[in-house]
Amino acid sequence: MNARAPKGTADMLPDVARAWEHMQRTAQRLFARYGYEPVYTPIFEHTEVFTRGIGEATDIVSKEMYTFEDKGGRSITLRPEGTASVVRATLEHNLVANGQSAKLYYAGPMFRYERPQKGRMRQFWQIGAEALGMAEPGIDAEVIVMLMRYFEELGIPRQNMRLLINTMGDENCRPAYRDKIAGFIREHSTALCEECNRRAETNPLRAFDCKNPGCKDVMSEAPLLRDELCDDCAAHYAAVKSSLDDLAISYIEDPSLVRGLDYYTRTVFEVQVDAGLGSQNAIGGGGRYDRLMEQYGGPATPGLGFALGFERTLLALEAAGVAILGHPVAEVYVARVDAALGGAVFALVQELRDAGIATETDYQGRSLKSQFKQADRLGARAVVIVGPDELAAGEVTMRDMTTKDESRIPLGEIAARLKQLLG
RNA sequence: GUGGGUGUAGCUCAGUUGGUUAGAGCGUCGGACUGUGGCUCCGAAGGUCGCGGGUUCGAGCCCCGUUACCCACCCCA
């Protein structure tokens, strides 16, 4: 038996699990203020949900999916991202029929078959939010602001983050631009890498993303979509920027920001940090996907959203020196002078827990000294000592671990006294 | 898929030109006039030195293979 988690997965031990819960709670509180409601979609979907939505030519679909055939012969894929599923669910349940809108958020594990490295896992967690049915540029800004506020609320200093934005155009202006870039790549084929040449056929815009210095040079001369936008897209982009300005959210326009999913239209954005993530730098990103619902056979429905990565966010938090503190494991520790008193202790511990007090005790027959050490380690504010002397008088000793004050308390009053001490 | 690095107690790591009972710190457990914590001191438990071959009188140290993890490329959260 190989007692090891599979490659690219990790156990989240209490310290990390606590951070996870903190990140989820923070999202729940914040997103609720923006009108978002939770949604849980399956962790696996029919493969087609992703191939259609994300795009056959993307890295995610072409080489990173966990796809398998189930016992019924269906092709199933572990979700590599959340948007496709949420949009599928929205369509399936008619959440935005007849001009309705929906604001939904989700959190959970995603799966991508890649070589793991710092900030990249095969199973990784994301929180995402999707705003469906709204085409106005104001909602673009709102989504971006909520994402930035989330990171800030967790404790990543604003100056540690960089918000990049760009526009991908729409079906009116992008095809022409796409052809133009494909042509540009062909013209400069000798100066570009093999991969970029291949991109001319599959997804020309991704050539902007190439990290090869030679390609970067060449692509810096390429025509920009910004200059080829149709009027509607140009107006939308201008309005988004203007809203961000109004909200004092600073951003960097990055024409090379393309992102790895085919469904994006118009606004795309990414939040990057410099420290803690190894060679990665994005902690969150997203964009608008006004045609996605139609790709699933649904009515034309605009939408946009973002996703952010837990692992990377935690790395960024650590790099920023932010500690996520846990609650004490126990508020009260019940110690017994000798093991024979177990019965009385057991009843008392249960009574305290029923009274809402986090209570811990020893089940290993340890020395009183050791029990005190344990109480200290668990962060207990008080220790209740159960000994023969006390019990003979129907009492216990209560020790305030901060002030070291001790007093004998009748058994019947101990719960109330402890609650009083704990405030 | 490709490349580099690492793999010694629960954790972080030392282990000299290969040499005889493999060490430290932290943590854990026990103790310091025996019913009491956080400091200090003492002591104890705990290791197939990733695994398999090879070289050697002898290998944690050298060689080969293998595996795991880490990091990087690609791309992304």
Q: Major sheet: size, sense and barrel closure? A: 8 strands, mixed
CATH superfamily of the largest domain, by name, is: Bira Bifunctional Protein, Domain 2
Please state how the strands of the largest beta sheet are arranged side by side: 1-5-6-11-10-9-7-8
CATH topology-level fold name of the largest domain: BirA Bifunctional Protein, domain 2
CATH class of the largest domain: Alpha Beta
Alpha-carbon distance between the two ends: 49 Å
- Helix tally? 15
For the record, the CATH architecture of the largest domain stands as: 2-Layer Sandwich
Radius of gyration using CA atoms only:
28 Å
E-strand count: 16
Class by SSE composition: alpha+beta
Helix content: 25-40%
- Tell me the strand percentage band: 15-25%
Would you write up a description of this structure?
- With 423 residues, this protein is an alpha+beta fold.
- The chain has 2 domains: 14-173 and 229-319, Bira Bifunctional Protein, Domain 2 (BirA Bifunctional Protein, domain 2); 332-422, Anticodon-binding domain (Rossmann fold, 3-Layer(aba) Sandwich), CATH 3.40.50.800.
- The chain is 38% helix and 21% strand.
- It is built from 15 helices and 16 strands.
- The chain has an 8-stranded mixed sheet with strand order 1-5-6-11-10-9-7-8, sandwiched between helices. A 5-stranded mixed sheet has the order 13-12-14-15-16, sandwiched between helices.
- The radius of gyration is 28 Å and the shape is elongated.
- It starts with 13 loop residues before the first helix and ends with a helix.
- It binds one RNA strand of 77 nucleotides through residues 2, 4, 7, 58-60, 63-64, 81, 110, 112, 114-121, 124-126, 128, 195, 206, 209, 211, 259-260, 278-280, 282-285, 307-313, 335, 337-338, 366-377, 380, 383, 385, 387-389, 397, 399, 401, 404, 406.
